[in-house]
Amino acid sequence: MIRRSLIAATAAITLLTGCAAEAPANQPAPSADPAVEPEATESGHGARAGAEEIGEPQNGILTISASGEASLIDLVSEEETSIGQIGAPEALASEGRYGFVTTASGIDIVDGGAWSWDHGDHFHFYRTTPSVRGSVEGSGPVSITPPQLSTQGATGMFFADGTAVALDMAALDEGEVSEWFRIDTGEDSGVVAPAGDHAIVAAGSEARVYDASGEPQGDAVACEDPSGAIATRVGTVIGCADGALLATSDSGSVSMEMIEAPEGFERATAFDGRKGRPTVSALSGENGFWLLDTRAKAWTHVDVDATLRTVIAADDNDDNVLAIDDEGVLHVYGPDGSERGATEPIADEASTLVVDIQRAYLTAPESGLVYEIDYRDGARIARELAPAAGLAVGTEVGR
């Protein structure tokens, strides 16, 4: 049940939103939203030399085996293609095209070969040959925050030794692993987050905007104990001890404002949500989660009966929220915490979950399976995919 009603930082504004027509089950379609047009003025609509524009998304499952063998499963044909070899994976992050794979020596980058370009009221879809792109050096655990679009901006990386890196996505699209900047923050935790043609480094007790050359821009903004960040349709969210900063980019400048969280609940330390949506989620203690609506600039705290370890806001027409509990059950909740469906225990401790407009994909490395789940139909398992190359980490690409 909801323990705290919606608290808005500003007056509520009603926005009319639209949704793309439903695609075939094996070809999930993004949700278009004409209320905003992220990066709509960028020329090329996400196209590049050597890539083919196609009429529908080319979704696939990018998998990495325990030994570092990267493969791609086509979600239409279920054919599996070998991509190449990288280091042994420890974790994986993705913006829907690239797999940023944490290894013992840093980040290995795998191009899934398919991506979408959000043009506000419609999408463009592209594909190219999947490949291993290269590596970013670093040591220790790393927090990775990709941008909304795979062909521009920066992917932020904050390593446990205090190194803050902004990876140039336009250069990566051209096949080059190039850094906007690399900064020694002197802190052992923090985040680097994209914001248009800038990046934000949050560490210690403040967040600061940097340009692509690594020069600080403007004054630092207070953000005590930063943890967790995500790029949304509205702007970039950065978790702070007392709430979250919302960074928005306009006409080449970046502004940040604090959205204070209601008191009395455990803070958000990591965020997740369906790509391209304004509402994101975060765990809050063992039995609760946050929903942060970046349009309304408001938090909602929700309590449930299960002990959760993962939560993702689908932010679809039904406001579904997906969560994995400590017994490996995938739950589908309403925004008030009401249960709408659940699987049998299928997840393990290394499982990951990604959500698109029609399906969720849950990796279960111990069983070697990727579960495709229709979360709008009571958490029904639509099919099981078994990567022949093995499965340690995986994600959906083409989103």
UniProtKB/TrEMBL annotation:
Segments for region (Disordered): 24-57
Signal peptide segment: 1-20
Domain of life where this protein originates: Bacteria
PROSITE patterns associated with the record: PROKAR_LIPOPROTEIN (PS51257)
Keywords from the UniProt entry: Signal
Protein name: ABC transporter
Species this chain originates from: Microbacterium sorbitolivorans
